[in-house]
Amino acid sequence: MNMLTTNPPAARLTAAETALVEAFSAQIGELPGNGAVIGTRDRLLDDLKKSGLPTRRIEAWHYTDLKNLLRAIPEAQATAATEAVAPLVDGATVLSVLQGVADSRAAVDGVDIASLKDRLVDGTAAAGLTALDKDDAIGRINGSFVRDGYVLNFPAQAEIAAPIELQARHAGGQIHTRFPVSFGEGSKATVIERHQAVTEDAALVSSISDIVLEEGAEITWIILQQQGLADTHLGQIRVKLGKDAKLRLFVINAGGKLVRQELRIEVVGEGAELTLRGVNLLGGESHTDVTLVLGHNVPHTNSTETFRNVVFDRASGVFQGMIRVAPDAQKTDAKMACNTLLLSDEADFAAKPELEIFADDVICGHGATVTDISKTHLFYLMARGVPENKARAMLVNAFVAEIVEELEEEKLVEALEDIVSAWLEKHA
Amino acid sequence: MLEIRNLHARIAEDGTEIIRGLNLTVRAGEVAAIMGPNGSGKSTLSYILSGRDDYEVTEGEILLNGESILELNPAERASKGIFLAFQYPVEIPGVATMQFLKVAMNEQRKARGEEELTTPDFIRRVKEAAAKLQIDQAMLRRPLNVGFSGGEKKRAEILQMALLEPSLCVLDETDSGLDIDALKIVADGVNALKSPDRATIVITHYQRLLDYIIPDTVHVLYKGQIIRSGDKALAHELEANGYADIIGQAA
């Protein structure tokens, strides 16, 4: 009896779970952090060990059974060589994270930049290493293993014209990065968070961006995920939107084998405005899950969410979009749409929009469509002499371009459209 | 130029026969008007000529310059010189008008084994043709047909026609939804393209358009057949007496 209670059946771990626990043991004394950080890491890993990776029985993970899908953890590749590349947009400042190490000494006038590693060592980053709830596997994994990243502070009224690119590149292995960023009152900036595989060697990547917009900040944040065909990418962005703050958040998935992108957004200041746009380019045998949890917590806030998904081959995609409107969040205006082009009989996409509305004077709507290319559009282009394959490519491109063009900054739109076209040329 | 022999065609989905033994010859340089009451098969004929796969040809032949086009897809027909000006041009968000024009012109050139246009040459051609049709640059910067008024859409169709230089132009109810000024601009555009080696088929419900685009021949389509052919006087007769007389004579 005693033997059974000290070794309960729940302790049976999958190969991947065992590998995570062993990787953690192997890195004891090596992962950066003071006593408080070490204590937090231990607790988060312990929670992960107890609950295991989430399965489909956990509602938030119903369409992405991580326990089942994450079969193995690649060996750590601390010495793999990568180097920084030119930024997505000319003139941007690159803060590179190579093989999980923030190595850049670039400075941006008017912005405090520190490496997360330093903040772990001095313990100031300890309080941020949290899991958002009991099902937050990404929070647990990242909090346990995170080694580096950048901590950025934009002082009040800072207006940073050139985009800042957080450029995370790897050549396989285990990569855990984190970017706590605060945007002071009235600050303006564009940040591009770019995740890229350099080789086809498998990687497990977790990355959390934890961003706060103070009153009146106007920020564009772009997440561009271009992992390799064998990579697992567990991404999370945590957002707090203060009074009259405006955030344009663009998420583009164009890579990876197993991808989960969590968008955890809390609107906490009146007059705040969120523009969320997403593009998912899915092909091969990949599985990509974008899960949004958006809380409108105060009166008079707006949000629009539009996702465009293009699914080829045997790829599968998931969009879960939960909008919660708190009881006193009157005059909330939220509109969510998820449109999918299914371009193969073996591809699939699951869309699950959810509204939880506790206020009575709000405008909230959602819509989801799944279609093939419009025959009328295809005929029109072909009737002008455009051959079928080219006409199809133009229409798929157009479906995505409509969203990308909303960014308006010409250089950014062009750079992202080039990425979309290049991806489509490879997959169509 | 175009010869249609004993054409029978039906809607692919439900098998409804729309074209029932149609014969028509249009010579190079000719402007042929096809008139007929609603439901006679006018628009269907235009779609069949351009190769829309919602319709199946079950019998007969369509020859363009002596060659059958029935096995060709719409893009191949376009590069052989068939152009359909749509009754309802579709809006395609996300496709830039200029990009579309360039791809269409160059794909047709490629299919015919011609050199692709250089960008400056392309832009010059578009500017010249657009000016003649009073299409401003702002319109060309918009996505294809998106937010265009009815008249703007029709002018954009004629712009495409001018740029693609087809040998057979098919205008499907090009006058519908146009006020008199827009109608004149469109008709001038069509007339400017008249040439001895180009034929035009004008499909219309009303005689009005034919005051501006003068036809050489007029054909009355009813229940999927040409029931009467004549010259432009026939159009006036229809305008004065309606279709009932002619249908009565044919029956």
UniProtKB/TrEMBL annotation, chain A:
InterPro entries: Fe-S_cluster_assembly_SufBD (IPR055346), SUF_FeS_clus_asmbl_SufBD_core (IPR000825), SUF_FeS_clus_asmbl_SufBD_sf (IPR037284), SUF_FeS_clus_asmbl_SufD (IPR011542). Pfam families: SUFBD_core. Signal peptide: none annotated. One of its GO terms (biological process) is iron-sulfur cluster assembly. Transmembrane segments: none annotated. Residues 173-399 form the SUF system FeS cluster assembly SufBD core domain. PANTHER family: PROTEIN ABCI7, CHLOROPLASTIC. This is Fe-S cluster assembly protein SufD.
From TrEMBL, chain B:
CDD domains: ABC_FeS_Assembly. It comes from the Bacteria. Keywords: ATP-binding, Nucleotide-binding. The keyword Transit peptide does not apply. Residues 2-248 form the ABC transporter domain. InterPro entries: AAA+_ATPase (IPR003593), ABC_transporter-like_ATP-bd (IPR003439), ABC_transporter-like_CS (IPR017871), FeS-cluster_ATPase_SufC (IPR010230), P-loop_NTPase (IPR027417). It holds the Pfam family ABC_tran. The keyword Zinc does not apply. GO terms for molecular function: ATP binding; ATP hydrolysis activity. Belongs to the ABC transporter superfamily. Ycf16 family. PANTHER family: ABC TRANSPORTER I FAMILY MEMBER 6, CHLOROPLASTIC. This is Fe-S cluster assembly ATPase SufC. It comes from Neorhizobium lilium.
